[in-house]
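Box S1 | Example of a co-folding query
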Amino acid sequence: MAHTNASESLTLTSEIPQIVAGLRATFDSGRTKPLSWRRAQLRALRRMLTEERPTLEKALRSDLGKPPVEAHTTEIGFVVNEIDHTLRHLASWLRPQRVSVPVALAPARARRVREPLGVVLVVSPWNYPVNLSLAPLVGAIAAGNAAVLKPSELAPATSAALADLLPRYLDTSAVAVVEGGVPESTALLAERFDHIFYTGNAAVARIVMAAAVRHLTPVTLELGGKSPAIVDPGVDLATTARRLAWGKFTNAGQTCVAPDYVLAVGDTAEPLQRELAAAVTEMFGTDPATSADYGRIVNERHFDRLSALLDSGKVVAGGRTDREELYIAPTVLGDVEPDTPVMAEEIFGPILPVVRVPDLDAAIRFVNERDKPLALYAFTDSDTTKRRLTTETSSGALGFGLPIAHLAVPDLPFGGVGESGMGAYHSAASIDTFSHTKSVLDKSLLMDTMRVAYAPVSQAKERILRRLL
Ligand code: NAD
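Box S1 (continued) | Returned holo structure for nicotinamide-adenine-dinucleotide
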């Protein structure tokens, strides 16, 4: 089988070419193409998620201190929903689509036909290690591909659980798990794939894309960045603060689409900061370290990186840390200047800076002067503001009144733009990503209506051709 248990040793890099060759042989045999195979695999994956829920919850708890309900809503249950939606609509997504044929070619039929790409590589990160491994896999399988999954070595318990469980439920001749870090990823990237689906940071994305060049392999890059949240004066600040706190402090802020920072327009900063502090206490109590609903930082490296950002502004809420426990309190920083360290890179942790901007124009300028974010959020009652943000800014997604939840709308493609990524997935968008759309033109040989196009071109033919085309 294509994996070994993480506690023993990870997949040997020398085994990787053989693993990929095995998957290619399976794909070439046509095994993964029938709708029945795809459905059976998706159902088996669903069964795994329900039967093995305790194992997965335990792994997520061990890697990220993830509370079980959060593990359900953002990971396990999320993928179950993705599977259910896919099973419901797959046949219609795969149905060939008739398109009309120009008069000059009539009578003929034309259609768009989906075909799987072949063998795809899915490389996933540590922050939602179940969701971000399995949601792409759902798309890869639904589109009829064979696949290798390379989970993140930084969520080792979840990586080991997936490597152990997936082969017990899925067709091992078509789906393999390769555990490991840089050496294993590098060995995988040396292989020829028909698509590479990478989720993670933009520095590694460049390595992935450079490797893909060699085999002219298409890539999907699901990256991150600083996703701003603009707060307009006059909105319900208590509701806004609760929703911001929810979006930011879920998974201790280690969410690619978490609001990275707030742009408080006009005089909203002071009252918003007060409401944010109140929302944190309401959700996690006066000592969030004891809250059953609050997670931990993934490792010491990220803990140290985040701790160094805490003096970038005035601590309005939180601020407490415990390295032993990898705990950083849900923290709100007020009076943050744009040139402070916390505003330099994606925070990816439970620190929410509030930056003042005088008006909407300044907020839009602030956003547009920086890399295109994975998500832009705005809390506003104004349709004009919504319209302006829709047309005057660019981001992977745009959320009014609620952060991160666009992910839960199955038919909204999920992906970034510019530095936040390329390509998208979820539901039908996954079928687009993991399929080739083949153009098929079908013209009968019974009657040769094409004679007019053949040489020699007489004056009569020329008149007809010029009229038709
Ligand atoms: P990570 O460190 O787990 O890396 C991601 C994957 O890349 C892992 O499987 C890892 O083994 C592999 N990798 C690391 N170095 C490599 C190399 N040199 N060559 C090939 N592969 C290599 O995760 P991360 O990058 O810290 O993830 C966090 C980032 O991902 C953040 O920027 C976050 O915003 C982004 N993210 C984006 C999404 C999204 O859906 N758009 C989701 C989650 C995270």
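Residues 68-94 form the longest helix (27 residues). Residues 207 and 450 are 50 Å apart (CA to CA).
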